[in-house]
Write a structure and sequence with these properties.
This protein is α+β, with helices and mostly antiparallel strands and 319 residues long. The chain folds into 2 domains: 211 residues, no CATH class; 41 residues. The chain is 45% helix and 24% strand. Strands 3-4-5-10-9-8-7-6 form an 8-stranded antiparallel beta sheet, sandwiched between helices. A two-stranded antiparallel ribbon has the order 1-2. A hairpin with a 4-residue loop joins strand 6 and strand 7. The longest helix is centred in the last third of the chain and has 27 residues. About 6% of the residues have low confidence.
Length: 319
């Protein structure tokens, strides 16, 4: 039983969960600013379902229902990537050297409860991660299908509706969504998952960035029985018409994790563009020209402008 709990705990922390920075290009659309020690690993299509331990099955199934295929990347220190590769190649978690040491150490303890054992293991694993200089790691999901080609009409309608909202309208909608999600707790921040687990929201925002692109930004903490507390960040948006999600969890030295996360996605946000955004800007420009021509025509009809002045001004607007 003790061995089983230890293995489960490792999977939970590993799959759920500073040096100089570098720019990391995952593909032609996704660029992140990460610590120099971080690299990335791309999961093969048949490995994606094995990339998460519990909790993500429903999410991946929902993506399938929406007919959205994704590319999945793990971004983190080389040590993390090496472990993932070993496990995907068939090595059992309990056969990893540091897991075997943790199991042996746990077997010498006399825990009075499962909660007590979990609390001890969290402390041990955090100590190990600190020793290996592993503060946080990141999952990145990118849709293979362009947003305009997604078949799910309801999803597109929801996103398009929010695309048309102003910042104030999005702010009001965000408040309503947050109120709905926290309705059971009635504290406007806690989302009960089950009798043991809760998500505590620090920040939940649906808005538009400086490029006018819609995004969802979430900063929260996963709390298991007040023993396991995991800060995590999620950023969802579109780049060049492709939807993406960046999901980061922190286990060590998390005081500055929000700033680290914002720095990491900064190049991604600055490079975001979208066909719909370009179309909207084009429409705005066309509407502005029409308005100027109508105003100019009124001035000509009222006699304020001569025909020569009218033609000169008209040419200037069209050019």
């Amino acid at each position: 039983m003790m061995k089983k709990i230890t293995i489960i705990m490792f999977f939970f922390i590993y799959f759920m969960s500073h040096s100089s920075a570098k720019i990391l290009n995952l593909n032609e659309n996704i660029t992140l600013d990460v610590p120099n020690s971080h690299n990335y690993f791309k999961f093969e299509e048949d490995e994606i379902s094995s990339a998460f331990y519990g909790g993500m099955d429903d999410f991946l199934e929902a993506l399938g229902d929406l007919d959205i295929e994704i590319d999945l990347y793990l971004v983190g220190p080389n040590k993390i990537i090496q472990i993932v590769e070993q496990v995907l190649q068939g090595k059992k978690v309990e056969d990893l050297d540091f897991v075997k040491k943790l199991i042996k150490k746990a077997e010498r303890k006399n825990f009075s409860s499962e909660k007590g054992q979990m609390k001890w293991e969290v402390k041990e694993i955090r100590s190990l991660l600190k020793k290996e200089k592993i503060n946080f790691f990141t999952y990145v999901m990118v849709s293979k299908t362009n947003f305009n080609q997604i078949d799910d009409g309801e999803l597109k309608e929801i996103i398009n509706t929010h695309d048309q909202m102003s910042q104030n309208e999005l702010k009001n909608s965000t408040k309503q969504y947050r109120k709905q999600m926290t309705s059971l707790s009635r504290d406007n921040k806690s989302i009960p998952i089950n009798e043991d687990s809760t998500i505590v929201l620090n920040k939940f925002e649906i808005a538009k960035n400086t490029s006018g692109q819609l995004f969802l930004n979430l900063n929260a903490k996963f709390d298991w029985m007040n023993v396991v507390k995991i800060p995590f960040h999620i950023y969802i948006s579109r780049t060049n018409g492709y939807m993406f999600a960046v999901i980061t969890e922190c286990w060590v030295n998390c005081q500055k994790q929000t700033q680290r996360f914002n720095d990491m996605i900064k190049p991604l946000i600055s490079n975001v563009s979208d066909n719909s955004d370009t179309i909207n800007k084009s429409k705005q420009k066309d509407n502005n020209i029409v308005d100027q021509l109508n105003s100019l025509n009124e001035l000509y009809k009222s006699g304020v402008l001569t025909k020569e002045e009218f033609e000169k001004a008209k040419k200037k607007i069209l050019n």
